[in-house]
């Protein structure tokens, strides 16, 4: 899978994904840390990437677009350290890879994961 990581996540999560065979880029790695959210979504679509974020705006932007892609995984964890995020991310990728490929909004919280297929 291909991922685009927003600024709220650690760059080491991109490395974690690459180590596990995925194509992952972090906005900071590309010097795009100030890119507006709408343009991040456009970039994700153009590059066929799944957006990983801590920002609730991405789910709203994608939902309002009426499109099937990009998929968005939003982390709403009390502990946003990379090791914890990576643990939840690995679980979500194992359980919901098909949904992510087809288009979904996934919200990961400490005690639950909510999946909504796109378009909403």
Structure write-up:
The chain has 120 residues and is α/β, with parallel strands linked by helices. The protein is 41% helix and 24% strand. The protein has 4 helices and 6 strands, in the order βαβαβαβαββ. Strands 2-1-3-4-5-6 form a 6-stranded mixed β-sheet, sandwiched between helices. α1 packs across α4 (82-102). The longest helix has 21 residues, at 82-102. The radius of gyration is 13 Å and the shape is globular.
Based on the model shown, name its key terms:
120 residues, alpha/beta, Rossmann fold, six-stranded mixed β-sheet, globular
What is the number of E strands? 6
The percentage of residues in β strands lies in: 15-25%
Q: Write the CATH fold name.
A: Rossmann fold
Order of helices and strands: EHEHEHEHEE
Largest β sheet strand count, sense and barrel closure: 6 strands, mixed
Percent in helix: 40-55%
Tell me the domain tally.
Answer: 1
Helix/sheet category:
alpha/beta
Question: How is the largest sheet built, in terms of strand order?
Answer: 2-1-3-4-5-6
Distance from first to last alpha carbon:
22 Å
